[in-house]
Each structure stands twice: as structure tokens, then as C-alpha cells.
Amino acid sequence: MSRENWTSSIGFILASAGSAIGLGNIWKFPYVAGQNGGGSFVLVYVLCVLLIGLPVMCSEMLIGRHTRRNVINAMGKVEHIANGSPVRFALSVLAAGMAVAFTLMEAWLMVGVALFAVWAFARRGFAAIGWVCTAVALAILSYYAVVGGWIVEYIWRAVTGGLAAHVPGAELSAEASQIAVESGKSFGAYIGDPWRVLIGFVVFMALTGAVILGGIRSGIERVSKILMPALFVLLLIVIVRSVTMPGAWEGVVFLLKPTSAGFTPKVVLMALGQAFFSLSLGMAITVTYGSYLHKDQNILRAAGWVGVLDTLAALLGGLAIFPAVFAVGLKPSSGPGLIFGALPATFAEMWGGAIWATCFFVMLLIAAVTSSASLLECGATVFIERFRRGHKRGSRRTAVLTGFVICTIMGLLTVFSTADWSHLPWLERGVRACMGSLTQGSWFDTLDNFASYWCLPFTALAITLLVGWVWTPRRAAPELLATGEGDTFPRWILLAWGLLVRWVAPIAIILVFLNSTGFLSL
Ligand code: TRP
Fold it and tell me: How many A from CA of 114 to the centre of ligand 1?
């Protein structure tokens, strides 16, 4: 079976960074940080990336490269290398634990799913986890693409002059605050108008499908190589304006200075979920990308770079947003609309604002498409390699179309319930009955909350168990150290990695889980 490969290790790093860097950094990171107290969240976030995110990322790349399969077959194969029955048992126990947690939350549908998982894990082991990953990736895409659609709308506004502009002679601070308030209102009105949101959503999904259709080399890799650097430059330009607005310094302090009151268990859970989301972990995307990676490329270095670039992008995103938020008097905790209030105000105060705004939103769109493409790619690889006729691989076109259709249909629910449930009262009733206290203020929030803070940590935990305890760091070491580039690693790196995947990461994830389900109060 011939599979494509990345052309070079830079190509792989940039494509992985392209998957990692997206709306998660520029849209989600600032608003989640804002809701969770700023500096303390940021500190915990960075720790989560270093101690949990990076080891998990290395593990995913290893699984992918070692097996060169789609997620489901890859997980199954690694498990097969070692006799994984005790860990299968452990997985079933975890699923049973989840079932209990969901019972407490009266999330009856999820109880059913968890009980089914107990059986599936016992019978099919890690291959079942691969299915969970695929399903969650498509679910995430179904709301990710809605946010992508907002960006499409804002490009349209920037181009057609629909964003507020500076009035010559007006006093900066007063004017910017007013613009921010109006931008916030107009964003609220926009997401409450599903038919308009639908247009952006469909455009975004079509873009995503188109990138994936191009295949990995000419599609994802080429796009990422040019655009990621451009995004960083534009972010820096926005930061310069943002931090020079009067009153901006407070925002910098909010973002970077931890407060002792800020370290609550909820903050840790949020930071962990956000770290997985932002690094594209737990969804086997990194497994999929790793499966296209050449044997002679250096995984540790690649993971290190992706982690650094992604964290940098998030911090720069925060630095671009928060100074402006404080300068114009927005509330940092105002939620998903945060950047859509703050950014228009910043651009209005820049010389040539509409042009900068257009460039910025276009870059953000591209960053988002490289991420959403990775989400769809995960499903597509599964469809191509699992659903074949005889010995023939399924066609890429059919696979992409299948993923596209599933996500678009699911996305319709999100489109009609982004702000609240008012357009879909029957959905609210259904979701409340099925998800109990996991239900949030809208379908959008419910899905995001469940995927980011429950599914991602769970699958990431499974991956650490698979690599740390089934495959074991000792047996995986040759794969980790296989580099054709003549690099050598100090031994402690290997030891540290082993320690992190085997002990630190799984224990941390379990503690956070126990705490968020109320079994343990830290
Ligand atoms: N990491 C991307 C972002 O920050 C989103 C994303 C892409 C993702 N692939 C993923 C999130 C897989 C979770 C899992 O925007």
C-alpha cells in the first residue's frame, strides 16, 4: 500500500504547526484565559504543555510513524506488539468510572456510551479508542467550522468597510471604547442570525474540503509553509498597536502576572483541556500526520518545535488581544465574542485599519483552515483505509465527501444554536435529557465543553497508557531515537520522556478528572 510522505522534516513541522496553530490560539486561548483569571491560567497552561502536552505529542507521532496506518489500525497494531490485556482492562475500568461520573451528572446518553465503551474496550482494545478519536474529531470540526465561518464574515466586513473606522479628530480612548461596545453588540446580533452564520460556515467547510482533496503534499504542506510565517508577522504588528493604546498595560499585566487566588482546580482542568485542544492532541491527528513521516526524521525535535511555535502563537494572540481589551474597557471574561469586540476597535485606531484588518482575518482564516483540514484528514484517512472494496483503497474523494457531509449536517445544529437555544427548543429538551448537567447555554458550548474537557483528556490518557504501559518507553526508544540526521540525544531526555508518559501525564490527567467529576476535591 503506497502512502504519501511529507517532503521534508521542515514540511512536517510546519504542517503540524499548521494543524496546531489555529483558532485555538487566537480565538479560544484569549477568551478562556480571560474567563479563568489571566496570568495564573497562562502559567498553568504553559506547565501543562511542557509536562503533559509534549510527551503526549511525541507518543502520538511515534505511534503514527511506527505503524504508518490510520488511527484505528495504528492503535490496534501497537497494542498487538505487546500483549495489552491488562491495559485493556484498565481502559474498561476507566470507562466504567466515566459511566459513574455521568450518572452523577444525569447525562444518561453518555452513561450509555460509556457502558458501551466498557464492552468495546474489553473486546477491541485500543482500536476502539481510535474510533472514539475519529468521532470526536468530526464533532470538533462541526463547531470549529462555525467559528471559521465567523472569520469569513469578518473578512467580508473588513473588505466592504463594514468594520468601524477611525473618525479623524476623535479622542482615541473614548472612541475605541465606543467602537468596542458596538462591535460586541453587532457580533451578538450576527451570531443570533443563523442564516447569515450559515453562509460563512458553508464557505469555510468548502475550503477545508478543498485543501484535503489536494492530498497532503500539495495541499496542506504547501499552504502551511508560506502562511504560518506571515501570520506571526501580522500578529506582531497588531501587538504593537494594541500595547500602545492608552491603558493597555493593565492587559499585559493581566495576561502575564499570576495571582495566588487564581489557582483553582477548575483553572487546571481548563488549562489542560485547552493545551490538548491547541496542540491538536488526543484526537490522533498527530498520529495521522506522524504516519506520513519519514523514518529518518527526528521526532523529538519536531515535537519540540511544534510545542514552542504553538505556545508562542497563543501568547502572542493573548498579547494582541488583552491590552486592547483593557484599553477599551471590555470585560476579559466576556467569552467567545472577546476578539470580535477587541480587534475591530484596535484596527479602527490603526493607520490603514481596514487593510490591516483584512490581512489579519485572512491569515487567521488560513490558520484555521490548516487546522480544520487536519481534523477532516483524520476522518478521511479512516474512511479511505477502513472502507475499501476488496483490496482497493477507498477513494480520497468519497472519503472527504463523507466527512464533509457528516460535519456539515452536525454543524447545522451548531449554526442554529450558537448564542442560545432559542432557535431550536426541541434540541435543548433533547440535549438536557441526554446530557444532564453537562448541558451548557447553547449547543455550541455544550459540544465544545464536552469535547475539549472530557473527550480530549480521556483519549490523551489512553494514548499515554498505550505508549507508557503497553508499548513501554524502553521498547519505543529505538523508534524515538531513529534519526537519519546524525543527531544524538543525551540519555536524560529519554529518561525524562519515559517518566513523563508513564507516570506524570496519566496521573495528572486522572487527578484532574477525579476532581472535575467531584470524586476528589483538591
Ligand atoms: N489545534 C487547533 C487550534 O488550535 C484545532 C485542532 C486541530 C484540534 N486539530 C485538532 C483540536 C485536534 C483538537 C484536536 O485551532
Answer: 24
The owner of cell 511506527 is 66
User: Which three cell numbers mark 450?
Assistant: 464536552
Tens-level pLDDT at each residue, the chain (522 residues):
446 666 667 777 877 888 899 999 999 999 999 999 999 999 999 999 999 999 999 999 999 888 888 778 888 887 777 665 677 888 899 899 989 989 988 999 999 999 999 999 888 888 888 888 889 999 999 999 999 999 999 999 999 988 877 666 677 667 788 888 888 889 999 999 999 999 999 999 999 998 888 765 566 667 677 777 888 999 999 999 899 988 899 999 999 999 888 888 889 888 999 999 999 998 778 888 888 887 777 888 889 999 999 999 999 999 999 999 999 888 999 889 999 989 988 888 888 888 889 988 998 998 899 899 889 988 888 888 777 666 666 688 888 898 899 999 999 999 998 888 988 899 999 999 999 888 998 999 999 999 988 899 999 999 998 899 888 898 888 888 776 555 667 788 889 999 999 999 999 999 888 877 767 666
SS (H, E, C) 473-493: HHHHHHHHHCCCCCCCCCHHH
CA angle at residue 134 from 129 to 289, to 5 degrees? 100
Q: How far is the CA of 492 from the centre of ligand 1 (A)?
A: 30
How many A from CA of 144 to the centre of ligand 1? 9
Continuous segment of H or E residues that includes residue 80: helix 71-81
Pocket of ligand 1 (CB under 6 A): 19-20, 22-25, 140, 277-278, 280, 283, 285, 371, 374-375
For residue 219, give the DSSP letter: I
